[in-house]
Structures are given as C-alpha cells and as structure tokens.
Amino acid sequence: MQPNLEPDAHRATRQFGFGTQIRKSPYFDATVRWGATGFSVYNHMYIPRDFGDPVANFWNLVNAATLSDVSVERQVEITGPDAARFTQLLTPRNLSQCAVGQCKYVLITNADGGILNDPVLLRLGENHFWLSLADSDILLWAQGVAVNCGMDVEIREPDVSPLQLQGPNSGKIMQDLFGESIGELGYYWLDEFELDGIPLIVSRTGWSSELGYELYLRDGTRGDELWERIMAAGKPHGLVPGHTSSIRRIEAGMLSYHSDMDIDTNPFELGLGRLVDLDMEADYIGKSALSRIAREGVSRLQVGLEIDGDPFAGPNNEFWPISVFGQRIGQVTSAIYSPRLEANIALAMVQIDNSSIDSRVEVVTPDGSRNARIVPKPFYDPRKNLAKS
C-alpha cells in the first residue's frame, strides 16, 4: 500500500501543548499537515518523532528519500576578529586545516575532558562559524567562555532552521531544485544558495549515513514555503515526510547526546581519539585532562552488541544493565531491531576488560534477560560509502 503523500488539512488543527516555553520550528504547521502525529522536545523545541510506522520510515529513507524537520539543531554563530581562535578553544579537534566552506564533526569538551555536545561545525567565512547543535545549551556555554577569554568575538543564535533531505534519491531532488551543479558539492562541504528567493546554506551532511543534504533556512518566515517547494519537487522521486530514523542511525553507529554520551563521557571511551589533537600548539578547554586520560587509559569503552531473542518493538527508553556471570559490567545506551540486518542491535558502554569482540554478555531488558554478543560497530556500511557517494 502506497503512503499518502498529500497533506491533511484536518491534522493542522491538532494541539501539541508543552507551553510557550517550547519553541515551534518554521516547519511545524507543515509537518502536522503532512502527517506528524507525535512530537518530543529537543533543545527546547518541538521535534516530530512520529509519521506512522517507524519501520516504513526507515525503508522510505534507505530506498527513496525523506524530508525531516531538524530545526532543533539550533545554531551557535561565532563571529568577530578572533572567531577562529575562539572556536578552536571550544574543541579538541584541530581546525587549522578547516577551509572556508567546509564542515567538521567536532566535540565540545569541558575542563575535565567531558563531552558537552557533538555538533557539526560549519565554516562560512574566515571568522564566521556555526555550531549545529545536539541537545544541550552550548549557546550559554560559549557566551560564558567568551566573557573571560579576552577575545574579540560575538556569540549569538542566528535565524537559521535546518531541514534534512536524506536518502538515495535526495541527489536527484536537489538537482531538480538547484540544477546539476549541486552534484559538485562534496561530502561535508557547504555552499550558499537561493531557491525562489529563499536564502539558504546547503551542506552535504545529515544524521542518517545515507546520501543526503541539510538545507539551512536563513529566513524563518519562509519555512512553510520551503517545505512545500521541496515536497513538490520530490514527489516524482518518492519523497515522503519523515523523522530521523533510530534504526538507521544505530546501524551506522551514530551517537545521540544524552543517550550514548554525556558530560561524564570522554572521547576516548567512545573510540573518538581521532577528534582529539594533543600535540597541536593551540590550547583548548580540556586539553590537560584529555592528555592525562590518554596517558592513563580508560576503564570503559563503547561497543556494539547483537542481542538474541524476538525483535524489539521499538527503541529502548531506559538504560539496560549488562552483566557477566551476574556481575554488572555496563549498560545498553541505544537499542533497536534492524529489519535490514534482521537482528537486535545496540550501542553499549562496558568495562574495558569485557569489551573484546565476540565476548558473550547478558542484557536485562524489560521483557527479561537476553544473551548478547559484542560485535564491531558500525553495523552497516562502516566506511560510509553511501553518504559519500
């Protein structure tokens, strides 16, 4: 049965009430018209979490294309004469070779080396940066750091609202919208565009590990117009509205802040030492602590799991204990059933002595204990050939 691709005017009258302190995106009304039936809160904003069957959402993503409202990826804009130096102060990733027009996945760390956020950094100019955030208040952190750092910078949140167009047909849709030259945009690069006079930054990024683009709207008054324009262009290519897929992101080993990491997690525990440069001349917050952790080693490590038993009905809503011979050794942080892999897969944090591939462990789920095996991650397309294609 084909999904209904037309908006439902009656849905626009539904009420989603978290109060005025929770912000709606410029695409909120459009997502309701097009079938969003459930929302949660992320970065103090509504985010659509339900467009029907999550398995159908997954197959739409990997077989054709989905359009998702990800305005919750709020931007921290850093400008001013010292913007480049200040941005480096926030992250242990070496940005010295980050060119104008390039994007980088970075970590924001505190003085103890704990992770505060894992945004995508976009460099729009020599001294013009955006941090496209995961779920934590980095605008306040950056403004606080700026107060006492002695650098000439301005830190603010701009009028920017991203959409994600993801899936193998996303390139065809983008060509129909912007012309064939959009195909020259490289993986993790950005450029400035206009679509029917709508100002945009477009990047080859996204939270799916599929071929995809993020369209950063720079005028919040035109959100409804942009959404409808993309959906119309995408109709011949099977585009449907959707939400970020837990199935696909766990298959890809993509991390979710507050689930797979938090302020008490350091990069080395996640296997992300490549994002920490301990030898560069530039200083950054947490450098001393991260140097110490690198010398001493870590006591726990993130691993992949395949968990036996019937398919999970949905993602985990709590951290499931992991044990060996009755002794707790860690916890599952993100779990889901992958219909493509026909397996229950999970990301987990375990004691390093119990982190070897093929080790057997026991996971306590709400349905009872299950046997599991530690496996390599990511679970699918580990070289990201799909996203880079």
Task: Explain what the structure shows.
The chain is an alpha+beta fold and 389 residues long. Helices cover 20% and strands 30% of the residues. The chain contains nine helices and 21 strands. A six-stranded mixed β-sheet has the order 12-13-14-11-3-15, with helices on both faces. A six-stranded antiparallel beta barrel has the order 16-19-18-17-20-21. Strands 5-8-9-4-10 form a five-stranded antiparallel β-sheet. A hairpin with a 2-residue loop joins strand 8 and strand 9 (128-132).
Unreliable spans are: none
CATH superfamily of the largest domain: Probable tRNA modification gtpase trme, domain 1
Strand order of the largest sheet: 12-13-14-11-3-15
Number of strands: 21
Shape: globular
CATH domain class name of the largest domain: Alpha Beta
Radius of gyration: 21 Å
Question: How would a crystallographer describe the biggest sheet?
Answer: 6 strands, mixed
Main structural class: alpha+beta
What's this entry about, in short?
The chain is α+β, with helices and mostly antiparallel strands and 389 residues long.
Could you list some keywords that capture this structure?
globular, Alpha-Beta Plaits, alpha+beta, 389 residues, 9 helices, 6-stranded mixed β-sheet, Elongation Factor Tu (Ef-tu), domain 3, 6-stranded antiparallel barrel
